[in-house]
Amino acid sequence: MSSMIPTNWQQQAKDNQKAYKRLLEKGNKNKMLKALPSLHEEAFSKIDCLQCANCCKNYSPRFKTPDIKRIAKALGMKEGDLVATYLRLDEEGDYVVKQSPCPFLAADNTCNIYEDRPSDCRRYPYTDEDVLLKRVALTLKNATVCPAVFTVLERLNTMDVK
Questions:
Q1: Among residues of the chain, what percentage have pLDDT more than 70?
Q2: Confidence check: pLDDT of 160 > 90
């Protein structure tokens, strides 16, 4: 699939932060929730994550206990060794990767632990979940990180969801 990541999307996402905030805070939540599945599908029919991998290059998911157990087992490591080698505690007390890009990101933007990746990675960028509407600050940040979030918000902004 050839990726159709919009040109200049990051600048547009920055420029449109106020409009997105207004939309997410004042828009009709039910109408927006109903629209999300098809907008999500539409965005990912055009955008190939392997062409971007901004999320893996710049941010870290939370590694929760079940994630750590699963990944350590898949890598044949002790959980403590996985934590010591790759993770650190952040300000919120969550385990995150020590440095960016993610140590599990391969040169071709694939994930070396894809089948066992953290649940945050599985769910990202939340464009088919109510998280998109409920966690406004996160969504606004993600609009500048992920072209799919930008695409979904742009489409929501043109729909009758007021």
A1: 98
A2: no
Our count of domains for the chain comes to 2
Domain that holds residue 110: 62-118
Angstrom distance (rounded) from CA 3 to CA 48? 5
Model confidence at 7: pLDDT above 90: no
Cα–Cα distances (Å) from 123 to 27, 29, 116, 126, 161, in that order, read: 23, 20, 13, 6, 24
Question: Per the domain annotation, does 4 fall within a domain?
Answer: no
Predicted confidence (pLDDT) per residue in 65-92, tens digit: 999 999 999 999 999 999 999 999 999 9
Could you tell me if 114 and 143 lie in one domain? no
Picking from 153, 154, 145, the residue whose alpha carbon sits closest to that of residue 55 is 145
Q: 93 with 69, same domain?
A: yes
State whether 96 and 76 are in the same domain: yes
Residue 131 token pair: 């998280």
